[in-house]
Amino acid sequence: MVTLKINFVSGNLHVVTLKINFESGNLHVVKWRHEVKAKEQALALVEEERCSKEAAESENKRRLDALRLKIEIDFQRHKDDLQRLEQDFSRLKSAAESTELNYQSNVLPSGKSERTKPQGETIARLLHELEKLENSSEKGANCDRECMICKKDEVSIVLLPCAHQVICASCSDNYGKKGKAACPCCRVPIEQRIRVFGASS
């Protein structure tokens, strides 16, 4: 009887041991599944961040390309305007000189002192006004390129995302050091600054 009892008890212990091992195996499976799920979530997060970064870089590149194209177009337009003004000035100056010479050669000596003077004054006045117009056009173009902060140096920094080009490189180094900087033109928060080189750089 004792032997049977011992065997019976030993058999129960064996069953219990098997049961414990089986349950331990289930715990390992559950733990493995949790680890796999955590890794999948981490990979998904990394992929999402990568896609977001690529999209941001693509958008910044698109804006930069558009800005460069705009700067090139504006520069060419100002160059064409200046060339046209120079041609107009040269043509008007030649026409005025030719008119003055023809008038002086055709006027009678007796009337030269009375009639040539007003004609010469008119031509001189027209030439003076044309020079003033050309100077004012150049001054206006220079004002458009003047830094909004120091009012001295030429603008050379493009602010993103607003794409305004209103400050120089020197002012950009010190602008917004104490907090989140905003564009001095439109007050939009500055996310990025790009150095560009214009005609005088």
TL;DR?
This protein has 201 residues and is mainly alpha-helical. It has helices at 2-106, 109-144, 169-174, and strands at residues 157-160, 164-167, 192-195. Residues 1-11, 13-22 and 110-116 have low confidence and may be disordered.
How would you describe this structure to a colleague?
It is a single chain. The chain is mainly alpha-helical. It folds into 2 domains: 2-144, no CATH class; 146-201, Zinc/RING finger domain, C3HC4 (zinc finger) (Herpes Virus-1), CATH 3.30.40. Helix content is 73%, strand content 6%. A 3-stranded antiparallel sheet has the order 2-1-3. Helix 1 (2-106) packs antiparallel against helix 2. The termini are far apart. The relative contact order is 0.07. The model is unreliable at 1-11, 13-22 and 110-116 (pLDDT under 50). This is RING-type domain-containing protein. GO terms for molecular function: zinc ion binding.
Reported for the largest beta sheet, the result is: 3 strands, antiparallel
Number of strands: 3
What characteristic shape results from the CA principal axes?
A: elongated
> Helix count?
3
State the end-to-end distance.
108 Å
Keywords: Coiled coil, Metal-binding, Zinc, Zinc-finger
Organism: Salix udensis
GO molecular function: zinc ion binding
InterPro entries: PIR2-like, Znf_RING, Znf_RING/FYVE/PHD
